[in-house]
Automatic annotation (TrEMBL):
Record keywords, A-Z: ATP-binding, Coiled coil, Microtubule, Motor protein, Nucleotide-binding
Family (UniProt): Belongs to the TRAFAC class myosin-kinesin ATPase superfamily. Kinesin family. KIN-14 subfamily.
Organism: Aristolochia fimbriata
Domain Kinesin motor span(s) in chain numbering: 23-346
Name under which the protein is recorded: Kinesin motor domain-containing protein
GO biological process: microtubule-based movement
Binding-site list for ATP: G107, Q108, T109, G110, T111, G112, K113, T114
């Protein structure tokens, strides 16, 4: 009973926030200047004076002219992984209450997408902290709910899905299928059951290692593919027998930078076109949702098709727009901030529980 009350209280609070703000959040995170950038005398073009209120200023033309952006939260280079997760955790936890959730990191390569989502062993990111939090709360609620949590790790590269937990490479092409109303899955994909944080770390490491296999340059490869972690939660309310099945996607997107002149041929061109296509598809889906269009073009890319259940009217979405503070990256920074502003303009309907 105690936890039912606690859930009811949190839901009420969440719904109040929803009413005020809609169902999509955009957090902006700026990485610190690197040692190299500092060594080169590179200065930051980001003004964090209004960061507490979600305001971000960009000094354009290196001068006093300033363009301002508004987000739900602005993290400065001084904010650490704990600060970032503290703000993301209410959303993450709502997957235990039966909501579908999607969290994705968007931005130019080198701006900290992987740092935010994956983190490092000593400085773990949203992915690990999410599962740690889910276990903690599941344990607190164990007298009222029984939870089963499983994890899949996928990569989308050149519009092809790869299962990063598969022990042997499959010759079969992985495809997305609809399984009942509003539910999509990839038949044959490994769903690893996880019961504690040690198992989680092993699974995340296995996924990360598999990403490197078959690529000459791991960093380059990972900047050109989308890394997608799917957490599935099956919950049973022990008091009334109610069951829910919900899904949380945690996505480290491919770099959003545009093609440079040296990249305009061969494999690199194909990769870049596929990245462009899927990131544009993501933007188009979000715009169609904003326009309350009767057709939402989820199927225009593997990325949006996979995210279909967790991106839209009945689910909750959080975007991290990652930026560099360096003046050299100003063009890409502005383009990422404009994309994020477009996303932030979207108001989804109220979130609905998945049964
Ligand atoms: P991306 O995934 O966007 O290509 P990375 O996550 O690989 O970028 O980050 C690029 C570099 O910047 C890495 O060395 C990373 O450790 C560092 N970095 C990114 N964000 C932060 C941060 N907030 N604090 C400290 N270092 C960071």
């Amino acid at each position: 009973i105690k936890y039912s009350l606690e859930i009811a209280k949190r839901k009420k609070l969440y719904n109040q926030v929803l009413e005020a703000k809609g169902n999509i959040r955009v957090f902006c995170r700026c990485r610190p200047l690197s040692k190299e950038e500092v060594g080169n005398g590179c200065a930051s073009v980001v003004d964090f004076d209004g960061a507490k209120d979600g305001d971000l200023g960009i000094l354009t033309n290196g001068g006093p002219a300033k363009k301002t952006f508004k987000f739900d939260r602005v993290f400065t280079p001084k904010d650490d992984q704990v600060d970032v997760f503290a703000d993301a955790s209410p959303l993450v936890v709502s997957v235990l209450d039966g909501y579908n959730v999607c969290i994705f990191a968007y931005g130019q390569t080198g701006t900290g997408k992987t740092f935010t989502m994956e983190g490092t062993e000593r400085n773990r990111g949203v992915n690990y902290r999410t599962l740690e939090e889910l276990f903690k709360i599941a344990n607190e609620r164990k007298e009222t709910f029984s939870y089963q949590i499983s994890v899949s790790v996928l990569e989308v590269y050149n519009e092809q899905i790869r299962d990063l937990l598969a022990t042997s490479p499959s010759s079969k092409k992985l495809e997305i299928r609809q399984a009942g109303e509003g539910s999509h899955h990839v038949p044959g994909i490994v769903e690893a059951k996880v019961e504690n944080t040690k198992q989680v770390w092993d699974v995340l490491q296995a996924g990360s290692n598999a990403r490197a296999v078959g690529s000459n340059n791991v960093n380059e490869h990972s900047s050109r593919s989308h890394c997608m972690l799917c957490i599935m939660v099956r919950a049973r309310n022990l008091m009334n027998g109610e069951c829910t099945k919900s899904k949380l996607w945690l996505v480290d997107l491919a770099g959003s930078e545009r093609l440079t002149k040296t990249d305009v041929q061969g494999d690199r061109l194909k990769e870049a076109q596929n990245i462009n296509r899927s990131l544009s598809a993501l933007g188009d889906v979000i715009s169609a949702l904003a326009a309350k269009s009767s057709h939402i073009p989820y199927r225009n890319s593997k990325l949006t098709h996979l995210l279909q259940d967790s991106l839209g009217g009945e689910s909750k979405t959080l975007m991290f727009v990652q930026i560099s503070p360096s003046g050299h990256d100003l063009g890409e920074t502005m383009s990422s901030l404009n994309f994020a502003t477009r996303v932030r303009g979207v108001e989804f309907g109220p979130a609905k529980k998945q049964i």
